[in-house]
Design goal:
41% of the residues lie in helices and 18% in strands. It is of the alpha/beta class and 357 residues long. The termini are close together.
Length: 357
């Protein structure tokens, strides 16, 4: 089965055509909202099935074939993932028009986290709120976390069932997951992709009392707060740029704003790793993936530095020269791997499961 993977992110649209051996035989990268998707689909070659990455799948626990009912369901979730859901739905419409006879499957970032137990998934909010609006922690980046955990087992030569893995997806969006026996048991994102770590333009976790104060005492509207938290916060809000590479360069030159941005980013990430280890009761492997996790030795060093009390330490030479997939940890310590984010492989596997291919 040749699977066309359509990965619509908040800032990019990636197309990958995988053959039945999971080799990428064609690919195309577009900027989000860029015209040309239809032309790219025609040039990529024939596919037997299409797999779409969808950030928010609600309570769905597994991938599902796309039909009108599912489209309505996903559209209703747009308010919970406003940066991601619209481009995914738009891509589905174009693909359906260009490839009307090819079966299409939606693969959900939230599905991997539906195994998180109630103590980790439940917000301490009024019971009537939780019942009426289904308020709980969904978690995101599940396709990336699922692949990273699978790859960790392969790289260590150990059974997934016996492995406690902390997976760190560090990109424009960033989150951590605690994976025990191949199942997510905790993660840093919550009801929306705003909770958790500091990200490129998103704030991560902020005191809700601060946000209420801005609205009730400073007169900011809900729309103004939302726009700022989604688009003008995070690394951008701290350093004036959302590009971590630029932040690192400026921090190395001693610029205070950039130094603070990198320190805040790393502080939140280290605290998050420690909380994931606590959820697992220990850690057997740490995985770094995503754009910054894969490509930035400085980010890896900043995040893992200071975690020696958990048995985690980077080998400086390994870290500097690492190309995915590679081990960067100190010999004799907890293994630390840099792993390429391969959501395409995870999506292709889920498509084949749904369609029986």
């Amino acid at each position: 089965m040749r699977v066309l993977v359509v990965n619509a992110g908040s800032s990019s649209l990636k197309l990958r055509l995988l053959d039945d051996e999971d080799e990428v035989v064609a690919g195309w990268d577009l900027a989000a909202g860029e015209e040309g998707l239809a032309d790219a689909l025609r040039e990529l070659g024939p596919a037997d099935a299409v797999g779409h990455r969808v950030v928010h799948g609600g309570r769905r626990t597994a991938a599902a074939r796309i039909d009108e009912g599912l489209l309505q369901e996903l559209t209703a979730l747009t308010d919970l993932a406003p940066l991601h859901q619209p481009p995914a739905l738009a891509a589905m419409a174009v693909v359906a028009e260009v490839l009307p006879d090819v079966p299409a499957v939606a693969c959900f970032d939230t599905a991997f986290h539906t195994t998180i137990p109630a103590p980790a998934a439940t917000y301490a909010l009024p019971a009537e709120w939780r019942r009426q609006w289904d308020l709980h922690r969904y978690g995101f980046h599940g396709l990336s976390h699922a692949w990273a955990a699978r790859r960790a087992a392969e790289l260590t030569g150990r059974s997934t069932a016996a492995l406690r893995v902390v997976t760190c997806h560090l990109g424009a969006g960033a989150s951590l997951a605690a994976v025990s026996g191949g199942r997510s048991v905790d993660t840093t994102m919550g009801f929306t992709p705003l909770e958790g770590l500091v990200m490129a333009t998103r704030s991560g976790t902020v005191d809700p009392g601060l946000l209420l104060w801005l609205q009730t005492h400073q007169g900011l509207s809900a729309e103004e707060v939302t726009e700022a938290l989604e688009h003008r916060s995070g690394v951008l809000g701290l350093a004036g740029t959302a590009d971590l590479r630029e932040v690192i360069e400026r921090a190395e030159q001693g610029e205070p704003g950039a130094t603070l941005a990198l320190d805040v980013y790393a502080h939140r990430a280290r605290a998050g790793v420690a909380s994931m280890v606590a959820a697992l009761g220990g850690v057997d492997v740490l995985v770094l993936t995503g754009g910054a996790g894969e490509a930035s030795p400085a980010v890896r060093a900043a995040v893992v530095g200071g975690l020696g009390f958990l048995g985690l330490a980077l080998d400086p030479a390994r870290n500097q020269d690492a190309r995915p997939d590679a081990e960067v940890g100190v010999a004799g310590a907890v293994p630390v791997f840099v792993v390429a984010a391969r959501e395409d492989l995870q999506i292709a596997a889920e498509v084949r499961t749904v369609l029986g291919g």
